[in-house]
Amino acid sequence: MKKINAFILFTQPEQAAKTVEELKQSELVKKIYLLTPENVTETIAGCKNIPIDSLQSTETIKKIARKSSADYTLIYQKSTVLKLGYFALERMLRIAEDASAGMVYADYYAIANGEKNNHPVIDYQEGSLRDDFNFGSLLVYNAKALKEAAKRMKKESYQFAGLYDLRLKVSQRHPLVHINEYLYTEIEEDTRASGQKIFDYVDPKNRAVQIEMEQACTRHLKDVGAYLKPKFEKIEFDKGAFEYEASVIIPVRNRIKTIKDAIESVLKQKTDFKFNLIVVNNHSTDGTTEAIDEFKDERLIHIIPERDDLGIGGCWNMGVHSEKCGKFAVQLDSDDVYSDENTLQKIVNAFYEQNCAMVVGTYQMTNFAMEEIPPGIIDHREWTPDNGRNNALRINGLGAPRAFYTPILREIKVPNTSYGEDYALGLNISRRYQIGRIYDVLYLCRRWEDNSDASLDIVKMNGHNTYKDRIRTWELQARKRPH
Predict the structure, then answer these.
(1) 360 and 353 in contact (C-beta within 8 Å)?
(2) DSSP 3-state assignment of 54?
(3) Average pLDDT, the chain
(4) pLDDT at residue 322 above 70?
(5) Is 50 exposed, middle or buried (0-12, 13-18, 19+ CB in 10 A)?
(6) What residues pair up with 34 in beta bridges, in sequence order?
(7) Is the pTM of this model over 0.85?
(8) What DSSP letter does each residue of 76-113 carry, written as one string?
(9) What average pLDDT does range 149-171 have in this prediction?
(10) Are 91 and 101 in contact (CB under 8 A)?
(11) What are the C-alpha distances in Å from 74 to residues 10, 85, 141, 369?
């Protein structure tokens, strides 16, 4: 039977000791190494200490690679107690052998607030480039694959992106295999709702981490032939004749509490061009329809589709393909409002000034009363003109509000989904064209209990993440084709 070297964190000695005892129950575990903070002399009988700066650094990965003398390398990423399932390690090694995997990971049970729940994870695919992809806390690498990847870390010296870099490098030559069986139990430390977690990657305090993650992802894209140089097709803004220079498009279904605010924030815009507002009302039943009809303004076009199979993307297509749609189609969600009366003018100006097919602005997080809440202003400053479209494959969104040059949007068309449709557009457009940026706050994004991503269960979150990974996979395949 193949053997394992195990590497566990030793930041909480009592919990580490329990995990060590758990690992010693398996005949597969040959050696156990304790990853300790610097200058720690305390140890556990039968284990060896390895001083590290952090689990996430390149130097730690290289230390693990040097000590990995068995066939497989187990890395447990948490300092809380690990409880293995019955013959869990045997199962993981069996699948690793059968699938010729570079790394295997599994579904698990999570204990949060004293309650034990199923925590399934998702399959890794080519487009699973998010640095926050959830593998669970227990990773089992083929030691040869790990050591070979570590040898290729010649130029890298990351403080935060070492483990991410390892996973990317292993995935270039070996499959990362998901075992959809519950093989261990861990303690869940982050018990926030899904809506509170989704903006972590743009929190300003995480900026240093994100810079390193971008560097690692960009290196990976170059290695696999999917990197795009900063060369863009020029836009000629003369395709077709448009009655309006811009149209704001609001898809809506059952938003009686917010739709009036959204409409009013559009109609008060001050511009030096002609604009309108297209509200695509997807068969609301809560009074939203009547609230829209209260506005007696010829600039407001109220569309109720005959179709009953439209998601948010489908509603966007309905608005964009209307003969009343302007040269530029500008987004506003029915929950949200523009920050002032100059937003639309700034967006249209940006198209011409930056010669882009899409413009993305900056928004401010607020509660329902439009009072600022953490993390505050979301400006996506990680986007750079040279590398934004490459880094876009790593992050989960591009920002808001979004606006598009209508002829290009009509050509591409919006995926008929209610999640990720805007991200898919951004990736597709950025493959050929520059995406413009505005770093003034243009938009107030209201977070409240009825937001579509406010509090998702794990199955729904996994579905969303799988779809975005699939979008990235398709985009990677398209970008690699010219090479």
Answers:
(1) no
(2) coil
(3) 93
(4) yes
(5) middle
(6) 8, 49
(7) yes
(8) E--SSPPEEPTTHHHHHHHHHHHTT-SEEEEEEEEEET
(9) 96
(10) no
(11) 15, 15, 6, 48
- With residue 177 as reference, give the H or E element that holds it: strand 176-187
User: How many C-beta atoms surround the C-beta of residue 8 within 10 A?
Assistant: 25
Q: Residues 122, 469: contact at Cβ < 8 Å?
A: yes
Q: Alpha helix (H) ranges present in 203-362?
A: 207-224, 259-267, 288-293, 312-320, 343-354
d(CA 401, CA 379): 11
Distance of CA 23 to the CA centre of its chain: 33
Q: Tokens for 83, please give them.
A: 């409880």
Residue 304, helix vs strand vs coil: coil
More confident residue, 187 or 429: 429
Which H or E element spans position 32? strand 29-36
Burial class (CB in 10 A: 0-12, 13-18, 19+), 331: buried
List Cα–Cα distances, 64 to 26, 97, 149, 249, in angstroms. 21, 21, 12, 53
**Domain 4-191: which topology?**
Spore Coat Polysaccharide Biosynthesis Protein SpsA; Chain A (3.90.550)
Burial degree of 98 (CB within 10 A; 0-12, 13-18, 19+): exposed
What residue spans define the domains of the chain? 4-191, 246-480
Amino acid type, 463:
G
The predicted model gives 196-202 an average pLDDT of 47
One fold for both 4-191 and 246-480? yes
CA distance 195 to 174: 34
- Separation between Cα atoms, residue 140 and residue 226, nearest integer Å: 28
Bond from prior residue into 13 cis (ω within 30 degrees of 0): no
- Give domain 246-480's CATH number out of 2.170.150.70, 3.90.550.10, 2.60.40.10, 3.55.40.20: 3.90.550.10
Residue in the structure block whose two tokens are 């700066």: 53
Query: Cα separation of 445 and 479, whole Å?
Result: 32
Q: What is the mean pLDDT of residues 30-52?
A: 94
* 3, 30 Cβ separation under 8 angstroms: yes
Token pair for residue 450? 């009825």
Contacts of 278 (CB under 8 A, 6+ apart): 247, 248, 249, 250, 301, 303, 319, 322, 324, 325
Q: What is the dihedral of CA 62, 104, 472, 436, to 10 degrees?
A: -30
What's the pLDDT band for 205 if we cut at 50, 70, 90? Answer: low
Q: Residue 238: which residues within 8 A CB-CB, separation 6 or more? A: none
- Token pair for residue 388? 């934004």
